Amino acid sequence: MVSYIDLPRAELQRVIDHALEEDIGWGDATTSALIGPRWSAQGRVVAKGNGILAGIDVLAQVFRTVDERIVVDILCADGTLVAPGMTLASIAGPAAGILSAERVALNFVQRLSGIASLTRRYVEAVAGIPVHIVDTRKTTPGLRSLEKYAVRVGGGHNHRHNLSDGVLIKDNHLVALKQEGYDLARIIAQARERVPHTVKIEVEVETPEAAEEAAEAGADIIMLDNMTLDQMRRAVDLVAGQALVEASGGINLETVRAVAETGVDLISVGALTHSAPALDISLDLELQPTSTSTV
After folding, report:
1. Are 193 and 251 contained in the same domain?
2. Of 22, 69, 125, 233, which has the fewest CB atoms closer than 10 Å, so is most exposed?
3. H helical segments located in 67-130
4. Residues 135 and 246 in one domain
5. What share of the chain is helix, strand, coil (3-state, %, to 5)?
6. Which are the contacts of 292, defined by CB distance < 8 A and separation ≥ 6?
7. 3-state secondary structure of 151
8. Residues 137 and 264 in one domain
9. Do 294 and 39 contact (CB within 8 A), yes or no?
10. Total count of domains within the chain
């Protein structure tokens, strides 16, 4: 299982606060009009599909943020393989708070579980091959930390969290600098001089020959951009272990194993975060008046 504690709590709370502000606005008009403080509720969070659970702690924190009297008992940890009908958590407390928090809480756990589930499918597709499935920065604005966490829950690995995490020299950088007479070796050398020694340098290339050139120039990681399988195999041979080799561009579940078999070290898949379908999860709830209600 994967523990949620590796995410910054302050950042998590900011994301939750923003989501609740967006959804509740100036107040839950329906609940305020119809469900008074005398009502309590209890229920369970239930999986409606097959997949990998991620974000159950986020769900619990959403409910606690709306009303600290809401009690959430988590029954399945993140990383659990869930199936339709499984109870993931139980919940009890003031009905108004539960109803107001419900949509945001479920949105988080459905989204993150969908990412973890899709990631697991990619990881399983390359089982037995020494390669890592990695994500990209193609994430939902404001949710990157959570979505990259979900990738880890699914068994994947994280690429750069943001632009400050590493140097990635892409085609636009190369075109601009080569117009000024820079060759690849000089470009990499300049980057090396201007960043801390702890920062890795990755170069995007489009041909096996360029991959060899990048390796000889001292790149730590070489990204093979939209290459054919034959080109990938040749690039891996030419790099010959001098750098990590990453395959990228248009890779899907049908092609990922063939890509892994070319000998690359990493396979980056933007679809893990930008195209993962949400896992169907619902809240089954029962409301009870704690005293005589006029509603």
Report:
1. yes
2. 22
3. 95-125
4. yes
5. 40, 20, 40
6. 38
7. helix
8. yes
9. no
10. 2
What CATH code is carried by the domain that includes residue 55?
3.90.1170.20
Calpha distance 258→271 (Å, rounded)? 17
Q: Is there a single domain that holds both residue 157 and residue 74?
A: no
CA distances in angstroms from 160 to 61, 138, 139, listed in the order given:
27, 11, 12
Judgement on whether residues 136 and 270 belong to the same structural domain of the protein: yes
Can you read off the two tokens belonging to residue 102? 């419900």
Token pair 């409301």 is found at: 287
**Residues 35, 32: Cα–Cα separation, whole Å:** 6
pLDDT digits (tens, 9 = 90+) for 142-198: 999 999 999 999 999 999 999 999 999 998 888 888 788 788 888 999 999 999 999
Amino acid making up residue 120: R
Q: What are the residue numbers of the active site?
A: 103, 138, 170, 204, 225
pLDDT in tens, 224-275: 999 999 999 999 999 999 999 999 999 999 999 999 999 999 999 999 999 9
The rounded distance, in Å, linking the Cα atoms of 196 and 209 is 28
Is residue 294 one of the residues assigned to a domain?
no
- 143: domain CATH number is 3.20.20.70
In the chain the beta strands, taken as DSSP E runs, fall at 39-47, 51-52, 71-74, 81-82, 87-94, 132-134, 167-169, 201-205, 221-225, 244-248, 266-268, 281-289
Copy the structure tokens of residue 121.
């499918």
Distance CA 135, CA 146 (A): 13
If you search the block for the tokens 């990681």, which residue do you land on?
A: 221
Place of tokens 């959570």: 146
